[in-house]
């Protein structure tokens, strides 16, 4: 499929005489050529090789040396400060664009108050374990990994500020804030000694909160302002109104920002996974505080989800907490009004209702933020595939990596939907490194590109397809291991670009290296498929918005006998893609199970 049969060998032959002994950069550049080879024409690949050779000779060594100097000076890593900047200087709205949503499996026989109360007790226990150092350390295999991100979970919030937001954390909070029908309440989940308060007490207190919020939002009562709509706005717009809001509501905002988590008692009863996912992802900006690190949302029918502010931590950290408290809460006795009253007959409900003082300027900002966010949400579509025909058990029967299998299905489905092969972003956890966040695993490999090509009608034989599919799976696993060990490509080259941009701003006549204006670079970095695997048995949904206007956002979960993929787009293409994904999953397994060749209508690669 390429005139250059071995671009890596050609590249190294050109590079070796002129580059010297920087082994790491040699490796990065070799991998970069390998990453972009499926995305460019043969002529573009030749040009890329020449430009990279020049970069390796002229700017690359000094930028790499500057990166290493930054590494030596940083308390953690050269990347952490840049990563914080990428999140905190992001100026678009954060719901959908930044904040992902997760849902738990439904719990039979539970009610809203019961499930919320038990989850609060379990959350309190998790908080205590984290604070006293007894929380079991995360591991990859037998090796412990970094736990730093857990310090950003509780008592944490993002604060809007012009040009760059900042994060706050309070590590001594004992309370949560409950949001019900636009009204905010404070309750403690840890007692004065720092011990978890039992679920039975929460049951009574939350019941009283629901009664109060219902009474104050009843027909004929004054309309309650949706202050939380402000958190859905463009960051600089929100930052411009925040000081005025804070000057009149410092106590209320402090209570929200420093709360261990925000608990939302939502009056809706979503009946489908897409309805629940949409409400948890954005809810049209209604009764959500998107700046809060953790928003635990329990709906009227006990469906439960969480919305996560992403700046301080990643999905793998979130699902450890969410899965653990789900498991722990399921072991607590279910609560009913009679059971709750008999468990704590002398305990009276205790909460504090927060109040807002709002100026005309704030009211105008709220209304505009609500309107603009609703218009934005209407540009996005969400379609979730709940694939129950098989899962990892059937896939591993063929000694195949479930993640490599599902990524192949994504690319095959994309090709069938759009008639093209494109770059894909897969998040790879780097928590085995101190303060590690993520690396980007580019899942479109050369062998996968060739495999998709031989599915076009008339297709190759089943034996030929199996051979290439196995090569594609092996390439995926090898690339994943490279990234996990800190040998990825994206972050290193991106870090050098940040330094080059800094030079351009401060060094006269300096030009950013040509590599960063090549089609190869832009195509690799254009995430037509932005994907992330956050699997745990307790979860039933994981979703987020596309990172590009013409792309797809795909959050997926691979279970023993089920695969769940929540797909979002801004071009109403999610339903078509999901239909093709369902077919692709079946076709790939049929190839291995029955020797049935995969057939795809002729399309131009």
| Radius of gyration computed on alpha carbons | 26 Å
Superfamily (CATH H level) name of the largest domain: Choline/Carnitine o-acyltransferase, domain 2
Low-confidence stretches: 1-20
Number of DSSP-assigned strands: 18
Number of domains: 2
Main sheet attributes: strand count, strand direction, barrel closure = 8 strands, mixed
| Annotated CATH architecture of the largest domain | 2-Layer Sandwich
Main structural class? alpha+beta
Query: What average pLDDT do the residues reach?
Result: 93
- Strand order of the biggest β-sheet: 11-7-6-8-9-10-1-16
Annotation keywords:
single chain; 605 residues; alpha+beta; Chloramphenicol Acetyltransferase; eight-stranded mixed beta sheet; six-stranded mixed beta sheet; 18 strands; 15% strand; disordered N terminus
Could you walk me through the main structural features you see in this protein, from its secondary elements to its overall organization?
This protein is an alpha+beta fold and 605 residues long. It folds into 2 domains: 89-131 and 148-377, Choline/Carnitine o-acyltransferase, domain 2 (Chloramphenicol Acetyltransferase); 381-594, Chloramphenicol acetyltransferase-like domain (Chloramphenicol Acetyltransferase, 2-Layer Sandwich), CATH 3.30.559.10. It is built from 20 helices and 18 strands. The protein has helices spanning 7-19, 23-36, 42-57, 60-73, 78-88, 112-132, 199-216, 235-248, 250-258, 273-281, 315-330, 337-343, 360-377, 392-396, 402-418, 446-453, 462-484, 490-506, 519-525, 574-594; strands at residues 101-104, 139-140, 143-144, 156-159, 166-169, 175-180, 183-188, 262-266, 294-299, 304-308, 352-353, 381-387, 424-429, 438-442, 529-533, 539-543, 552-558, 563-569. The protein has an 8-stranded mixed beta sheet, sandwiched between helices. It has a 6-stranded mixed beta sheet with strand order 12-18-17-15-13-14, sandwiched between helices. A hairpin with a 4-residue loop joins strand 17 and strand 18 (563-569). Helix 7 (199-216) crosses helix 12 (337-343). The longest helix is centred in the C-terminal third of the chain and has 23 residues, at 462-484. The chain is globular. Residues 1-20 have low confidence and may be disordered.
């Amino acid at each position: 499929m390429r005139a250059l049969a071995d671009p890596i060998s050609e590249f190294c032959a050109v590079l070796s005489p002129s580059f010297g002994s920087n082994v790491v950069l040699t490796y990065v550049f070799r991998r970069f050529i390998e990453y972009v080879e499926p995305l460019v024409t043969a002529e573009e690949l030749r040009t890329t090789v020449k430009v990279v050779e020049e970069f390796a000779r002229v700017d690359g060594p000094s930028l790499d040396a500057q990166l290493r100097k930054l590494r030596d000076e940083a308390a953690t890593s050269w990347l952490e400060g840049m990563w914080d900047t990428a999140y905190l200087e992001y100026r678009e709205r954060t719901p959908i664009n930044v904040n992902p949503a997760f849902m738990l499996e439904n719990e039979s026989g539970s009610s809203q108050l019961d499930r919320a109360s038990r989850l609060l007790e379990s959350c309190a226990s998790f908080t205590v374990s984290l604070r006293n150092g007894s929380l079991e350390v995360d591991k990859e295999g037998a090796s412990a990994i970094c736990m730093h991100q857990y310090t950003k979970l509780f008592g944490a919030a993002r604060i809007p500020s012009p040009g760059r937001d900042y994060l706050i954390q309070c590590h001594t909070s004992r309370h949560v804030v409950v949001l019900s029908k636009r009204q905010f309440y404070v309750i403690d989940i840890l007692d004065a000694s720092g011990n978890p308060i039992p679920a039975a007490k929460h049951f009574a207190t939350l019941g009283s909160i629901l009664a109060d919020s219902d009474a104050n939002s009843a027909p004929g009562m004054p309309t309650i302002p949706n202050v939380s709509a402000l958190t859905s706005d463009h960051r600089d717009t929100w930052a411009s109104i925040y000081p005025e809001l804070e000057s009149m509501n410092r106590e209320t905002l402090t209570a929200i920002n420093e709360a261990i988590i925000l608990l939302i008692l939502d009056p809706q009863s979503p009946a489908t996974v897409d309805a629940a996912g949409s409400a948890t992802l954005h809810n049209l900006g209604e009764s959500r505080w998107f700046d809060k690190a953790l928003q635990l949302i329990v709906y009227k029918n006990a469906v439960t989800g969480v919305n996560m502010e992403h700046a301080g931590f990643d999905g793998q950290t979130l699902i450890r907490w969410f899965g653990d408290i789900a498991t722990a809460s399921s072991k607590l006795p279910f609560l009913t009004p009679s059971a709750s009253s008999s468990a704590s007959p002398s305990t009276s409900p205790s909460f504090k209702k927060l109040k807002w003082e709002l100026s005309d300027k704030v009211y105008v900002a709220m209304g505009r933020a609500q309107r603009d966010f609703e218009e934005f949400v209407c540009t996005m579509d969400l379609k979730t595939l709940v694939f129950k025909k098989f899962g990892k058990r059937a896939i591993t029967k063929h000694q195949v990596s479930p993640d490599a299998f599902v990524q192949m299905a994504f690319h095959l489905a994309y090709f069938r939907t759009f008639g093209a092969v494109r770059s894909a972003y897969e998040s790879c956890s780097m928590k085995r490194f101190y303060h590690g966040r993520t690396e980007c695993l580019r899942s479109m490999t050369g062998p996968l590109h060739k495999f998709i090509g031989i599915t076009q009608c008339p297709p190759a034989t089943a034996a030929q397809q199996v051979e290439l599919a196995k090569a594609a799976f092996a390439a995926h696993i090898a690339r994943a291991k490279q990234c996990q060990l800190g040998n990825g490509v994206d972050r290193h080259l991106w870090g050098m670009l940040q330094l080059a941009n800094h030079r351009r701003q401060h060094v006269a006549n300096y030009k950013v290296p040509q590599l960063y204006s090549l089609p190869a670079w832009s195509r690799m970095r254009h995430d037509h498929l932005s994907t992330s695997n956050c699997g745990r048995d307790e979860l039933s949904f994981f979703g987020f918005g596309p990172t590009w206007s013409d792309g797809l956002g795909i959050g997926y979960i691979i279970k023993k006998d089920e695969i769940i993929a929540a797909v979002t787009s801004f071009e109403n293409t999610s339903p078509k893609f999901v239909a093709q994904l369902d077919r692709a999953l079946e076709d790939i397994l049929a190839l291995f199970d029955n020797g049935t060749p995969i057939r795809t209508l002729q399309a131009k690669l």
